[in-house]
Amino acid sequence: MFELFLPFFLLVLFFLVLSVIWRINARKYISSDTVASAYDAWTQDKLLERLWGEHIHLGFYPSRKNNIDFRKAKVQFVHELVNWSGLDKLPKGSRILDVGCGIGGSSRILAKYYGFNVTGITISPAQVKRARELTPIDLNCTFQVMDALNLKFEDGSFDAVWSVEAGAHMNDKSKFADEMLRTLRPGGYLALADWNSRDLRSHPPSLFEKLVIKQLLEQWVHPKFISINEFADILKTNKNSSGKVVSENWNSYTNPSWYDSIIEGMRRPFVILTLGPLAIIKSIREIPTILLMNWAFRKGLMEFGVYKCRG
Fold it and tell me: Do residues 287 and 258 touch, judged by C-beta distance below 8 A?
């Protein structure tokens, strides 16, 4: 009888241990310093870079039948957002601000394929260091450590502002929008993509959904999520915005990324093994959060919002 229940008990034990690890190593948002520390750690161990490449953001999959490589999907996402937002209409040499640039993957594409002069900013010193290491000297890309809620640029400094999956780390969404639109020249382009929740005011979460959201916030240093419509309204009412804001939900295009991000570890097991036992633990630790993210986006509790507007 015991032998029949042994696999079940081992599975329960595994998840109990994993739960303890989660709680001990939770990356709960406290301030922008906790965001910087988390991204410093992710960058310095190079686990994500070796598994996922130069882009930490999700990929773009034109259709579910399209068998596109995970890393190529991430590059494709950049091109899709450029075309959708209108940045492709800007001439070469246009000044672009990449807010939350990571290790510079998107910045390099914007400079290489579109001829833009790109300034990337991130709260993480380790990311800036790595972005500079990865960027060829012939690309017009520069990187700086800077808080997105306190940009050190003059009003109207840029022809376009670009930001992918950075806003979820901002505790003040209005200030986030203020700073981006303030530094955007009149008539300039804003292109933004972010993780959002559904409108929890009109569709309150169940008890289980509340637990899921809490876990997603605490594991990846997010202070709070808001809906696509809520952030679109923030952009529309900003004094530096034209008021013409277009937003869409790209869940169907980006959701395959979640499973692919796990599969990458199976495709490249030696990447994890060569980094040592700690890398194995870190990899396993992320899987439950990734699966929760997949579930939340697939069920509509979370939404992948894209936004475009003019200054």
Answer: no
